[in-house]
Design a protein that fits this description.
alpha+beta, 4-stranded antiparallel β-sheet, 2 helices, globular, GTP-CH-I_C/QueF, NADPH-dependent 7-cyano-7-deazaguanine reductase, NADPH_dep_7-cyano-7-deazaG_red, oxidoreductase
Length: about 150
């Protein structure tokens, strides 16, 4: 790990939750398997943000899959970035797609997709899906495994 200490500012250090996604610092590390196509999955089943109009909390189960190129996202920085949405007001679509685009900008992955499975408020769940394009040939991409919302019936 010592060769990463010059570039990583959060891993191994006490780090406060950023006040906003704009202030959050996403960090990356070199992919030790660059040139090999594989899928990395991050699951955040307790993602929270705020409705930009009412200030009421919104909850989602996020699943982020990506095929890395030269870079991997450093997981602690991703956790802090996702946590920074806790007090951030944005619609479901903006949160979901904005997270994906920020990761694409940082990593320049071969492929990335995100599934935002939002819990209903006002009686209607809103699920948001985005990806950079078709997954690379020959890569196993499992189903995201999140059941559609069924409510009570």
């Amino acid at each position: 790990m010592s060769h990463y200490t010059d570039t990583l500012t959060q891993l191994g250090n006490a780090t406060s939750l950023p006040r906003s996604p704009e202030e959050a610092v996403l960090e990356r590390v070199p992919n030790p398997q660059a040139g090999t196509a594989f899928v990395v999955r991050f699951t955040q089943p307790e993602f929270t943000s705020l409705c930009p109009l009412t200030g009421q909390p919104d909850f989602a189960h996020l699943v982020i899959d990506y095929v890395p190129g030269d870079w991997l996202v450093e997981s602690k920085s991703l956790k802090l970035f996702l946590g920074s949405f806790r007090n951030h007001g944005a619609f479901h679509e903006d949160c979901t797609v904005g997270i994906a685009k920020r990761l694409v900008e940082l990593l320049d992955p071969a492929w990335l997709r995100i599934g935002g499975y939002w819990y209903p408020r006002g009686g209607m769940p809103i699920d948001v899906f985005w990806q950079t394009g078709a997954a690379p040939a020959g890569v196993w991409v499992p189903d995201q495994g999140v059941a559609p919302y069924r409510g009570r019936g």
